[in-house]
Amino acid sequence: MSETPSMRLAALGLHLPKAAAPVATYVPVARTGSLLVVSGQLPLSGGTLKATGKLGEDVSPELGRECAELCLLNVLAQVQAELGDLSKVKRIVRLGGFIACTPDFTQHATVMNGASDLAVAVFGDAGRHARSTIGVPSLPLDAPVEVEALIEIA
């Protein structure tokens, strides 16, 4: 039996949180054909943000990286809620990362690697993806990081 994404998560000592309900007029996941578009997810754990503030001011790059990883766990929780099984993921096609930061902050890629590295750890080569990482002046709830995804399913 080959290792499943859920088994890889467990081996990493990680578990999926409960999928967060939308806080406005949108759906957490939109499905079209063999693609899932997952709305931006914040670094929530148990309904609380792991951190607040901006990279380059209140939040270190290391904490930002942990937030990006938690955002991806929340993305995967949405996928699990939609599909019932992460093994139905064929490929992580694209991740979009939004980093709330000061104008002089330049370590966006380092922060977003928290999400990207986890995608590869969970899905292997199918977790390798295209990516955009953008610095923004603010995010909802004063979150430091938000991650969205485009995922191909079987």
Tell me what you see in this structure.
This protein is of the alpha+beta class. The protein is built from 3 helices and 7 strands, in the order H-E-E-E-E-H-E-H-E-E. The strands form 2 sheets. The protein has a 5-stranded mixed β-sheet. A two-stranded antiparallel sheet has the order 3-4. Helix 2 (61-83) runs parallel beside helix 3. It is globular, with a radius of gyration of 15 Å. It starts with a helix and ends with a strand. The model has no long low-confidence stretch (mean pLDDT 96). It holds the Pfam family YjgF_endoribonc. InterPro entries: Endoribo_LPSP/chorism_mut-like, RutC-like_sf. This is Endoribonuclease L-PSP/chorismate mutase-like domain-containing protein. Residues 8-145 form the Endoribonuclease L-PSP/chorismate mutase-like domain.
Task: Put the structure in a nutshell.
The chain is an alpha+beta fold. It has 3 helices and 7 strands.
